[in-house]
Amino acid sequence: MRRESPDLGRGGSTAVTAILIDEHKLWVANVGDSRAVISKSRQAIQMSIDHEPNTERGSIEKRGGFVSNLPGDIARVKGQLVVSRAFGDKNLKLHLRSDPDIQNADIDLDTKFLILASDGLWKVMSNQEAVDMVKKTKEPQRAAQQLAKEALNRDCKDDISCIVVRFKG
């Protein structure tokens, strides 16, 4: 993509995706701080890893970058990016990874739903709070809208994308 469109901007993105195989095996892959959470026996279980600069400092430094931790701020790659893995971010590409972490889980009768959301939701709401909100609403699209609305009510200043998937059973 960079080769075909060298005039692309400096922006980047994170991603989380999931696939359900034979209705029983869930696979989740993520890059960055978008997150997947399932509800199993009414408990929130995080199915992805938030890629934070401090946890991958060695990899960033090995690629010639650095992680800054200014007082009152969060760790940033080269003083700019708050994630250690991302797509794009042309000016930081040499220092970042874009390979996903992959997790899997067995889906059984106790697993009720999956939440896939960007960091805007997770900055203002815990995994369990999100699960508790969703379990009150049967319709997945409505549940996702309610999560996004609640994030806005909590003064989220970041992007908010959210999908809720209910499992059969």
From TrEMBL:
SMART domains: PP2Cc (SM00332). InterPro entries: PP2C, PPM-type-like_dom_sf, PPM-type_phosphatase-like_dom. Residues 1-167 form the PPM-type phosphatase domain. PROSITE patterns: PPM_2 (PS51746). CDD domains: PP2Cc. It comes from the Eukaryota. This is PPM-type phosphatase domain-containing protein.
